[in-house]
Structure formats: C-alpha cells, structure tokens
Amino acid sequence: MNETSRVLGASTAFLRLGWHDACRDRIGLFGRLLLFSIPVVIFATIWQATPLAGSGHDADRLSWYVMMTEAIVFSVGYVFREIEQDINSGAIEAALSRPFAYVLAWIAEEAGGTLFRLLALLAYGSLIAWLATGMVPFAWAAAPAIVLAAIFAAFLALLFQVVIGLLTAWVGTPAPAYWIWQKLVFVFGGLFIPLTLYPDWIRDIGMATPFAAILYRPASLVLAADQVAIVEVFLWQGLWLALALLLVAAVAAAATRRFLREGV
Amino acid sequence: MTASFGYLGALIATNLRAGFARPGPAAMQLVLMAINNLIFFVVWALYFDRFPSLRGWGQADVAMLYGVAAFGFGVSVALAGGVRDLARTIVDGGLDVHLGRPRHPLPSLLMSRSIPAGFGDAASALVLWLWIGERTLSDLPILVGLSIAGGVVMLSSIAIAQCAVFWWPGALKLADQFWEVTVMISVYPQHVFGSGVRLVLFTVLPVAFMSQVPVEAVREADPLKALSVVAAAIVYGALAVVVFDRGLRRYASGNRMVVNR
Question: What is the pTM of this model?
Fold first, then answer.
C-alpha cells in the first residue's frame, strides 16, 4: 500500500468515526437543533419587523439566508476546545507517537461529525424556514450546489478552528483568539445582515476576507443562485480552502517542532 | 446575617484570588472579551446605519440592552463561574466536598470558580451605555442595579437547568445548551416577538428579566418595571435553592477522595 492510499484510508476511517459519533449523540443533536432554532427565529422575527421597502430584499428570503448562515455556524461546534484539551492534558503526546499525523486525524474526525450535523441542520432548518415563510427561494436544481457550498464553508470554518486550537501550544488558552475570530466571522461574514446591505467600504473589505466565503457567499445562493453566482462562490471557497490548508500545515509543523523541542 | 455576608465575602475574595492567580492571562481574557463584545455590536451599528429603527428602538436602546445583558452576565460568571460546571460537578459526584461544610452548599459551589473574562463583559457594558447608548453617569446606579438583578435571574435559571441532572444525568449537554440559549437570547431585543414567545421569555426561560425589562424600566422611567426585575431576582433565586435542595435528596456520594488545602 503506498503512502497516499494509506493516508486516504486512515482519513476516511477517522471521518466515518466522526460521522458515527455524531449520529449516536442524539441528545446533543436534539439540543443543537433546539439551540439553532433560536437565533433563526430571532433573526427572522427581526427581519419581519424591519422596514425593508427599497432595500431590494424581503423578510422571507432573508429568513432563509439566516437559516443558512446559522446552519454553517452551528455545524462546526467548538473543535478548538478539543484540541486545547488534548494539548493541555498531554494527550497529544500519545498522538505524536502514532504513525499518522495527529492534525489530519483531528480534521478528518471533526469533518465527519460536522458533515452529519450540517446535513441535519440544513434539513431541519429548511423545514422550519419553509413552514414559516411558505416558500423556497431557490430552484430545486440549485439545491445540490447550495448544499455543497455549505459543506465547503463548514470545512473552511473547521480548518480555521484547528489553527486556533493549535495556538494552545504557544498561548495556553486559545479561547480569546476564538472569540475575536468568531465575531469577525459574524461581522465580515454577514451572519445576520447580507453584505450587500452593508455600506460599500465595509462590504468590499468583507468580500475580500475568508469570512465571506464561510457565511455570506454560500448563504447568498439562497437569495440568487444563477450559474455565474455558483461558480464565483466555488472559486472563492476553493481559494480560501487552499490557503487555509497551507496555514494549517504551517502552524501544525511549528506546533509539532515546539512539542518535540520543549515537551507538552 | 453578618456572618452570612462575611462568609459570602470570603468566598468571593478567595474565588477572585484563584481567578486572577495568573494575572497576565486573566487580564488578556478580560480585555479581549470587552473587544469581542464591541466588535459584535458593529452588526447592530450596520443595521441601524441601513434602517432607521426596529419597532421604535434605535441603536442607543439596543446598546443599552446589550450592555445590561453583558454586565449582568459578566459579573455573574466573574463571581459565580461555578454555575458553568454545576451539572458536571453533580454528575461526577463532586458535591461531597461542599456538603461537608457547615453552610448551604450552593453558594460555595457557584463561587468555586471565577471566569475573569466576565469583567471584560462588564467593562464593555460601560462603553455601550455611556458612549453608544447615550446614557449619562447619573443613569449608572440604576443600570448597574438592574443589571445585577438581571444577572441573578440569569444565574438562578441556569442553576435550575443544571440541577436537571439530579433527575436525569443524561441532560448534561442540554444543561450546557440551556446556558448558551439563555445568553444568546438575552442580547437581542425581545419586543419584536409575539405574545406567545414573550410569555415563554417571562416564565420558563426568564430572559426578559435579564435585559428587556431592565431596559424598558430605564427608557420609560417605570419604577414598577424596575421592581419587577428585583422581584424576579428574588423569586428565581429562591426557586434555584428549592430545586437544588430537592435534587440533593437524590444525590449519591461520588466516593471521591479529595484533599482541600
């Protein structure tokens, strides 16, 4: 078996493990769906109460938009905390001695769980959005592209969380870095307000960041899902995924060097 | 009575010393939490830049609401951060050490941990009230008082939810999620909701008393609303003690050997 197929096989096994763990955690899923409903209802209600005339948007479509952004946010969870715990408890030592990159194992396992949760959240969220608005704002033919864009977005968010988790090697407690990163995602990603409703200069900044590729770009497909828009979303996500993978590789290598040099 | 206050004061002092045992990281958490709240408020600034009002509420009102929720929550977790781990402590059999003390175990459990970032929440509240919220220094005593009362409601309702594990240990994750739901709802204006949702927010999930009613009391200079927040703090505080005591009857020791120095 060559190296590539060995890595692929192990990654798939970790991905399946994460998927099955997420499947088995029924109480956790129930709680997550409940928790997810709350901001969706809050934001949808706020949009219903907002004087949108002349904005080019309507409350029903914006409710679907918010459902998409929240589904992505809720699917990822708090991966950085798991990594923090592994590093601070010393469990990373055992992982370092295994014949498989520990960061890849984390990513694959968390990706499996994230994928399951995202699909569950999107299914449930679409149902409540449809019941609340009585409409589906996109053509059914665009649905696979929208789901795929959401998957890429969640994976991108996951990679950034892995980087934040690895910062534990230097700072001990990465939570403050996570809070700031999360709020930047909310603001420049357009968690609640689509970037097109921002003042021009902030919109331009937001569009040029990975935060838009995580929230605004995939969620904007429920507002307008023509072929050009879909291709543009995938291109931006592809670019940021490539850069995020490079960043993960660089930070993981630096963290490993630190563990080997100074211990855990 | 004096002895009880002395005991609470000693618990708070010990808790804060532990929370700030590493002053550098604690101060960093505090500062970053304040920045974090102010960054998040940018969303509302962008909203009100585009839309004039939200059912009669402007940016200053939402800033006041966010500040009230942040101050109440912040002070609660800075002084009584043990509420975060209450369910876990019960499930792990960690109550024994608190039960052996000659006082009611709930205060020592709640004050067994300090989350220094809570002071960052409180600091951001001052910026939100005085700068964005356009309130004056003379408003501070009522804002601080009502925020603390709202914080007691928050702390009590979270403690009640965490006590669910006495009856259903599998509810650990749900108890955690109740915490997140409570915090999440409290920072958004609730006057936009219909009567059904508002009924829930005044009873089962008493978030209305944590931020919305305190802000309405200040906006409308309504002493009855202010008193209702204080009354809610007393009622939910008492309810938390009753639920904890009932749950305690079902508690079996964790048989853990713990050495306290």
Answer: 0.87
